[in-house]
Amino acid sequence: MDQLVEYFNQMPSTHRTIILVSGLAIFSVLEGINPFFKRNYQLGKHAITNIFFTLTTALVNFPLAFLIVLSSEWVVKNNFGIVQWLGGSTLLFLTVGLLLMDLVGAWLVHYVEHHVKWMWKFHAVHHTDQHVDTTSGNRHHPGESVFRLAFTILAVFLVGAPIWLVFLYQTISVIMTQFNHSNVSIPGWLDKSLGWLLVTPDIHRVHHHFRMPYSDNNYGNIFSIWDRIFNTFQTADNQNIRFGLDTHMEEKYSNNVLAMLKMPFEKYRPKIKYENKERI
Q1: Angstrom distance (rounded) from CA 56 to CA 149
Q2: What SS3 state is found at 264?
Q3: Residue 201: which of 179, 228, 232 has the closest Cα?
Q4: How far apart are CA 203 and CA 214, in angstroms?
Q5: pLDDT average, residue stretch 78-97
Q6: Which of 2, 8, 236, 265 sits between 20 and 30 A of 243, alpha carbons compared?
Q7: Distance between CA 151 and CA 38 in Å, rounded?
Q8: pLDDT computed for residue 277 by the predictor
Q9: Where are the beta strands (DSSP E) in 44-150?
Q10: How many CB atoms neighbour CB 106 within 10 A?
Q11: 100 — phi, psi (to 5°)?
Q12: Half-sphere exposure of 231 (CA within 13 A, CB side)
C-alpha cells in the first residue's frame, strides 16, 4: 500500500499520458475484435473528431492543474475534509476517498450539467455523438472541462484528498470512462455482476440514448451505486438504443468540430419529454 501511495504521490505527467493513450488503444482493439454494435460509420473521422476534444481537455486541464495541487496541499496541511477528520488507515483513505471523489467529481457535476441550462449547452456536445465508442469518453467541450475541473477541486476540499488520492482517482476515472463508453460486447452475466458496483458499458449506453428520460439517468462514471442510491438508475435493451441527442440530430453536430464548439452559444433548445418511458 505504501508503494501505491508513493507512486501516485510522484506520478509523472508522462505516465498519465501513457495511460490515456494505452487505454484508448486497448479498448479500440477490443472493439474491433468483439464489438457490441457493428461499425457502420467512418471510424477514422469519428476518432479524429473525438480526439480533438480530448486534446482540448488536456489544454484546459494542464495549465490549471496547479489549482488542484494547491487545494490538496491546503487540505492536508490544515487537516480539512472528511478523510482527514476520519483518520485511520491508508485503506480507509483509499476506500472512502475514492467513493466520495467519484460522487462529487463525477456523479454530482454530471447531474448538475443535465439540470442547469447553461451547463447543459456545453455538456450537450458529449451527447451529440451518434456512434458511441471508447473515443467518446473524452468528447467534452473545452468550456465543460473548466467546470468539471472546478467540481474536482470542490471534491478535494470536501474529501480532504491528499495528492496521491487525487491522482489515483483521476487515473481510475480515465480508465473507467474509456471502458464504459467502449463498443465492446461483454457477456450479460459478467456485465450485470460488475454493474452492481461499477459502471459498465451496458449501464452507460442507456445514458447516451438519444431520448429522455433515458439520457437523464445513469450519471455515474466509476461506481454505479450512486445512481442506485439517488434513484437515477435506468435500464434499457442495449440492442435497441439509438445514440445521439434528439434536439441536435443534424450531422454537423455529430462530426463538425466548429459547429460543436459553437453549440453552447446558440439558442437553448429545450429537451423533448416523451410520455411513454418505454418507447425506444
Answers
A1: 13
A2: helix
A3: 179
A4: 11
A5: 89
A6: 265
A7: 36
A8: 52
A9: none
A10: 25
A11: -75, -35
A12: 0
- Which amino acid would we find at residue 115? H
- Alpha-carbon distance values, 195 to 92, 100, 225, 262, 277 (Å): 23, 18, 9, 36, 22
Structure pTM?
Answer: 0.92
d(CA 66, CA 70): 6
Residue 246 one-letter amino acid: D
Q: In the structure, what pLDDT confidence band is assigned to residue 43 with cuts at 50, 70 and 90?
A: confident
Mapped onto helix, strand or coil, the DSSP state of residue 184 is strand
Q: Is 249 left (phi over 0), alpha (psi -120 to 50) or beta?
A: alpha
Distance between CA atoms of 204 and 195, rounded to whole angstroms? 10
Could you tell me the CA-to-CA distances from 100 to 39, 113, 171, 228, 229 in Å, in that order?
A: 36, 18, 15, 15, 13
Separation CA 68–CA 195 (nearest Å): 30
Helix, strand, or coil here: 117? helix
Compute the average pLDDT of residues 115-137: 95
Judged against a pLDDT cut of 70, whether residue 278 lies above it is answered with no
CA 169 to chain centre: 12
Q: Which grid cell is 193? A: 455482476
Q: How far apart are CA 65 and CA 70, in angstroms?
A: 9
Q: Residue 36 has what DSSP assignment? A: S
